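Box 3.1. Reading complex inputs
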Amino acid sequence: MAETPEKLGNKNKIYMTDDLAEMPGDAQSTDWIAGETTNTINFNGNQIEVSDKSSGAWQKFIPGVKGATIDATFNTLDADPKQTALLDSFIEGQTVFLFVGDLEANTGYACEAIISSITETNDNAAISSRSFSFVANGEVKRI
Amino acid sequence: MMYRSAESEIYMAARELLVRDGIQVGGGASYPRVEIHSFNEGGPLDKGMSLREVTIVVESMSVSSKGESLEMNAENLSRLVGSNLDTEHFHIIGIIPSSLTDMEETLDSQAILYRQLQTMRIIISQKD
């Protein structure tokens, strides 16, 4: 049996912090980017092939540089200061600080990131939504 | 934010807009009559548990003619769609008409009952 139970995705929210969150306490509930409906964090790592004549029939690798991308979708809130700040950061070419995780359980990931894309969707008879894609700029801290 | 059900406030606000002279609104068994036939409040649509979708069915009933029931439905739509239903604890973001069902029934009295069942989606967000 697992020692901790499963949890709802609602618990893992995305927060925009003033600085890189070194510990969970650095991210506050007020840092939550309001209107969030979903977030996804994806880690990736390069592989450097080091196969040689001793490798036999199978390739061999050593791990290369790592990276991460984060995608998050929000119900559009034009007056929300966090959503507005993200739009401004994209236009002005500034990096942002993000924490994705569970404040109550003190678990998650923190990183500095650049905004790689913004998508705004306005379907007929549906809530307008705004999606951001982020690319981690440097280390992603696992908290 | 304390999670609240919207049913009481939205139901009452919608009913208030539907009230007019010559039409029974809710309760009783007289005709012509308009009722909020059903009220379905969906779960939260965001992680803040603020945004929700409510589906109501407004029923217009006449024993005179189908035309009267259609006119009542048209009046209901004009009163609800585009109206400001904001209540103490909820913002109304939009009211969107969807399907309309037309039914005819024969009552025990042998009179024909003309019914229009208009479904509407109401998008709401709970205030802080």
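In summary: Residues 94 and 114 of chain A are 7 Å apart (CA to CA).
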